[in-house]
Amino acid sequence: MIDRIRESQIPAKRYQKTQQFPSGMDPLTLLLAASVFTLIGVCAGIATGLIPGLHVNNVALAAIAIQGPLISLAMLLFGWADPTVEEILLIVSTLIIGNVVTHTFLDFIPSVFLGAPEGDTALSILPGHRLLLKGLGYEAVKLSAFGSLMSVFLALSMILPLRLVMGSPLYAYQKLVGVIFYILLIVVTMLILTERGDSKTSRRRPYLLCHVPEGLMMSEEEAEELEGIQPIGISELKKHLHQAVIVDGVVSNQEDMQSFQLSQDKANVAVFLDAKASLKVGAKVRVLGIVKGRMSLSSHLLPKGLALGVFFLSGILGYIILSTPGFAQNNWYPIPQLVMDKSMASFFPLFTGLFGISTLLISLMDKPTIPAQQINDEPPKIAGWRKTRAVFSGTLAGTLPACFGN
């Protein structure tokens, strides 16, 4: 990109001048220029964060496609400061940084309020959706904003250590680049093998799938907040397959930390948890869970097969866009002379479809009942160690893909 700027975007006389006098801009002017373009990126981040279907990658591709006008704008505003080629490139790049950071603060808003599912899937969705269905959507947004803010500070403190690890003197990236393919293959394999899906193949011996901690040992006051869900008997579970129900009972047996037997009168049902929980035999509990049919071998394999199929379809899609001869060249582009490879330009509509249209279609198909949302100015009541764990785990999970080229 630097070579392209040097060759075509900055006039030859100007380029020669920067080579003869490479002193460039003074630090304060450079900081001012970077701040102006960062502010432009912030405005773009507000749009990409709040509008479904827009992604930070859209802005990055658009910035590459119109880098000529962006460089001209930078020269128009700060050409008097005698910037070098590298400084111009740095100034324009801050637009992407401002967009990325702002996007992380705002993209949670449409994902919570526009992606709410129906009640019968309420326990297998994102935590933000669970809070929304409890009337705590605003609290979910505040928690997301808090996590994003703390992650920014934590990420800034990690820049120098990661630079020393990924670059000189350890050069971890160069040492691991040859095995990144196998690392990704292991991750994909684990995702496919752990895919459970939603079994609808059998109505025999129903069981309950419970989310911890919200769905376990709920008080009567908490249960009343879920409109339309009333306690039922274990004998009635077959009538409510794939629906959210509340069942009161006694723990009669717990074989492991993620399942137990719930007894009610002379009936019992197996309860499977999505996290570990220790219960005492004989303890009275109230379970909010989804009624599932006992899965057979075929119903275990079906979701894994579907996940594998989606994986291969995504690979085929990428191959068609990047490797099919004439695919990119035969498309019509409103900008005749692109400063980027045409196969990369095809990602612009692709990202919009993958990140936006799918969510909107799911939202149109579902008809969720969203309760009135509670607006509370007080900070969410969450233990400090849980906030710290969430910030560290989220920052680490976002750092690793960035370090290895996403």
Secondary-structure topology with pairs:
Elements lengths: L1 H8 L2 H9 L6 H24 L5 H10 L1 H12 L6 H22 L1 H6 L13 H7 L3 H30 L5 H5 L3 H14 L13 E4 L9 H5 L19 E13 L2 E6 L2 E7 L10 E9 L4 H27 L18 H4 L1 H19 L18 H20 L3
Helix pairs in contact: 3-6, 4-6, 4-15, 5-6, 6-9, 8-9, 9-16, 11-13
Give a brief rundown of this model.
With 406 residues, the chain is α+β, with helices and mostly antiparallel strands. Among the domains are: 2-106, no CATH class; 207-293, OB fold (Dihydrolipoamide Acetyltransferase, E2P), CATH 2.40.50.140.
Q: What would your notes on this structure say?
A:
Helices cover 55% and strands 10% of the residues. The protein is α+β, with helices and mostly antiparallel strands. Among the domains are: 2-106, no CATH class; 207-293, OB fold (Dihydrolipoamide Acetyltransferase, E2P) (Beta Barrel). It has a five-stranded mixed beta barrel. Strand 3 (259-264) and strand 4 form a beta hairpin. Helix 6 runs antiparallel to helix 9 (137-166) and helix 11 packs antiparallel against helix 13 (297-323). It is elongated.
| N-C termini distance | 19 Å
Largest sheet: 5 strands, mixed, barrel
- Give unreliable regions as ranges: 1-22, 118-124, 199-203
Strands side by side in the biggest sheet: 1-4-3-2-5
